[in-house]
Amino acid sequence: MEQPKPDTTTLMDIKKIFSLLQPGDDEADSEDSSELSRAVCQDDATTLARLLSQDRYKKLLNKRSGWGVPSTPLRLAAARGCVRSLRVLLEHGAEVDSLDVKAQTPLFVAVSNGHRECVRALLEAGASPLGSVYNNCSPLLLAARDGREDILRQLLEHGAQANVHARLPEWAANSVSCSGPLYLAAAYGHLECFRLLLLHGADPDYNCTEQGVLAQIKEPKTLLETCLRHGCRGDFIRLLIDFGANVYLPEVPKDGANPPSEGLEMLLQARAHPKSLLSQSRLAMRRLLQQPGCSATLGELEIPTALARATPPGQTTPPTALTTPLVNYTRH
C-alpha cells in the first residue's frame, strides 16, 4: 500500500521560518548591536538617527540580536513603546512586517503591550493589520480580548477582519477555533469593543463566516446563547438583536427554577415581536454595504442630513460617515 506523501509545503514553511529568524552568530552580541539597542530602549531618536547614518550600524537595521527572543531594533521599539525610535527606524528602512522566532510582527508586539502610538505608526507605515500567517493568533484578537478600543478601531480602519479567528486546520476545529474577537469582547466584558466590532461587520450569530470550520463542530453555540450562559449584561444581548442576530437559533432554558435574566427576557421579547420588513431591509442593506468595495456606494444614498449627522445614544460625537446611517438603520 502506497504511503501518503508528507505535506511538503508545511515542512518548507517551518524550515523557512527557522532559517530566516535565527540571529546571525557574528552580530548577535556585537558592541554595535548593543549600542543600537541602547538608543532604541532610551527612545533617543537623535542618537539613533546619528548611528543609522553610518553604514556599520545601518547594516544591523533588520538584524536580530539579544537574549531571550532575538529582536530587531523595530521589534524592540514596538515592545517597549518607544515611538520616537520606532519612527526613526521606519524612516531608515526597517522591515515593517519582520518576524521574530515566535512568528510575531512588530505590530503584534505593539498591540500585545498596548502601545497605541506605536500601533498607529506601524499601520501608517504599511504594517499588515492581519499579523503573520505563521502565527495562530492575530492583533485583532488580542485587542478585543484586552479591551483596547482605540487600538481595535485603528486595526479595523486599516483592514483587519472583524470575523477573524484562530488560524487552525479544519480538522482541529472546535468551539475555541471559531471564538472570534466578538466572542472574546463579550467574554471579557468589553462592551465598546463589542459594539465597534458589530459596526465593522462582525457576524452576530457565530462570529465565524467559514462554513468549513462550523461544519466540523458538533453543536456550535451562537453568540446569543453564549452571552446568556455566561451571564453577560443585557447590553450585549440588545446589541446582538439590534444587529440582526437570529433570535430563534439559541436554545432557551426550559427549567423555571431561576427567574429569567434581563438578557433572556430581551430574547423572548424579540421572538414575540419579530422585526418589521423595514427593519429587516435596513439590516440587509447594512450587510451589503459591509462587503469589500461597497462602502463607497454609501455616499450615493439619499439620506436626510439630520439623520446622517445624528449621534446614536451613548456617544458624545457623531460616528464616521460609514457607520452613522448604518447605526440608525439597525434600529427597530
UniProtKB/TrEMBL annotation:
- Where do the ANK repeat units fall? 69-101, 102-128, 135-167, 181-209
Q: Where is the composition biased (Low complexity)?
A: 311-325
- The residue range of the signal peptide is none
**Claim: Repeat is one of the keywords in the record:** yes
Q: Which GO terms describe its molecular function?
A: transcription cis-regulatory region binding
InterPro entries (UniProt xref):
Ankyrin-SOCS_Box, Ankyrin_rpt, Ankyrin_rpt-contain_sf
Region: Disordered; residue ranges are: 309-332
The reply on keyword Cytoplasm is no
Q: Which GO terms describe its biological process?
A: positive regulation of transcription by RNA polymerase II
Q: What is this protein called?
A: Ankyrin repeat and SOCS box protein 12
Instruction: Tell me which species this is from.
Output: Zosterops borbonicus
Query: Taxonomic lineage of this organism?
Result: Eukaryota, Metazoa, Chordata, Craniata, Vertebrata
